[in-house]
Amino acid sequence: MKIKLILVMSTLLTIFSAAAQTSKIADQWRTLDSERTVLLTLPHGKVVIELAPQFSPKHVEQFIKLTKAGHYDGNKFYRVIDGFVAQGGPEDGSRQDKLVPTLTMEGDFTTDENWQFTKIQEDDLFAEQTGFKDGFSLAHNPSEKKAWLTHCPGVIAMARSNDADSASSHFYIVNGQATRYLDRIMTIFGRVVYGMNHVQAITRTSVIEGDTPVAEKNYTSMTSMKMMSDVPKEQQILLAVKNTEHPAFSEMIEKRKRRENAFFYKKPPPVLDICQTPVKSRIVN
Amino acid sequence: MKIKLILVMSTLLTIFSAAAQTSKIADQWRTLDSERTVLLTLPHGKVVIELAPQFSPKHVEQFIKLTKAGHYDGNKFYRVIDGFVAQGGPEDGSRQDKLVPTLTMEGDFTTDENWQFTKIQEDDLFAEQTGFKDGFSLAHNPSEKKAWLTHCPGVIAMARSNDADSASSHFYIVNGQATRYLDRIMTIFGRVVYGMNHVQAITRTSVIEGDTPVAEKNYTSMTSMKMMSDVPKEQQILLAVKNTEHPAFSEMIEKRKRRENAFFYKKPPPVLDICQTPVKSRIVN
């Protein structure tokens, strides 16, 4: 009897300990909500995008509505420039596209003295501070009480004409060096968390200035754009991304600034570029 | 007789005028020397690299020697990390690789008060000044009298172990946001001038942290690496790139800073990121 009890207790302890261990690891990762995650299928691979309704609610709402309606299925990436963006959407002037309402710019938002993020750098080229919140990269100007999502590689934003509030459904994904000069004047509403190599492989429509333009028939098309929650379970890609609010993330940032590895025989300046600081993801299904 | 003379003169004038026009345009472009240009053939596309012997003579000399010997043909990209680099070279520990001499670091060089480049920015995050010379992006610290090639997307540099002077033949190409913290401690010796989409499509060997590693059989291999001058004429890709010493290039830079296009309904800070300033190329054959 005594032995049995000890065995039971020992088993329970093992279970508790394993659970605690799992939870401790899990805290450093945040599992993505499949209702806020998009699966973009390209002819050459799959891309997963996390949406950012907490920063750009109206744009995300409209993008989800359009995605669920199949608005993007079969659309083409018609403006793809190396080191800039891959832009796509329904054929210009199509009847379908004219029915989509335009959106009011959500390029930045107001902060107060209680607003916080995981700061990584002061005195960035384009802002007073940069850092992360909910896995997204942001810039913050405390002097103006304004913050905004930054144009790092892999962010998805709505395209527009000259009018600030003219975006509707056409979007772009930054495919090269951060286009930070577009910060605050375009609405970013998500970021690629998986399959960036497939985004970057999208055929450039203007490969070389002065060369014959790429024929439209060679443009890369979107096989489909679906909410992850609407994809059959066996085809879903479920991801967890690093929790940028966890102390372990801040520790990683500080460590990265110090560059203590012996590889750095001469240390670089102790600064971090917000767009060169990875927020890693991993498949969980 | 008089009429004939006029006709001849008129023809001559037309010829002179056309020549002047061509030369004026041509000055803005610099045709690449096929003896300093490399054709990297990947299974999914062709990539052209311009070498930089004027900045990293010893590394370029060795890279050309290795390329001509077929050292890289069939090699794999065995370390490919999203937003970082695609690194490749001969199988580690191969006999062939052990015969390659190591190189002394050519990470930066000394400047004097007469040293010039086409400056684009002061107060960069990692340097006192940034700019271009011969189509390559550089940083300059006048206070130290040092300049160096910068790690922008598409630059090719030699990999090394912890020892500064341990590089030999393994190389990497920056595939995402500029890895500027590697400036001066790695030797950049060229840059991709065509086919960056194919470089960026190289299979990531570490797609997702925590996921099963990518099987070696799925690594992208280099079908061949050849000097452009050694490629049969009909397979050559001959390029011209913008002449960064031409006044038109400086004008483009100033214009880019001002962002006068109506699209910029609110102007971004008048700064330029050296790695977000394109030096365009075009096919000339």
Q: Any key phrases for this structure?
A:
homodimer, 285 residues, alpha+beta, Cyclophilin, 8-stranded antiparallel sheet, 5-stranded antiparallel sheet, 5 helices, 21% helix, globular, disordered N terminus
- Tally of DSSP helical segments of chain A: 5
Oligomeric state of the chains present here: homodimer
Radius of gyration of chain A: 22 Å
> Biggest β-sheet of chain A, characterized?
8 strands, antiparallel
CATH class of chain A: Mainly Beta
Integer tally of domains of chain A: 1
Strands across the major sheet of chain A, in which order? 4-5-12-11-13-3-2-14
Please give the number of β-strands of chain A.
16
C-alpha geometry of chain A: globular
Mean pLDDT of chain A: 90
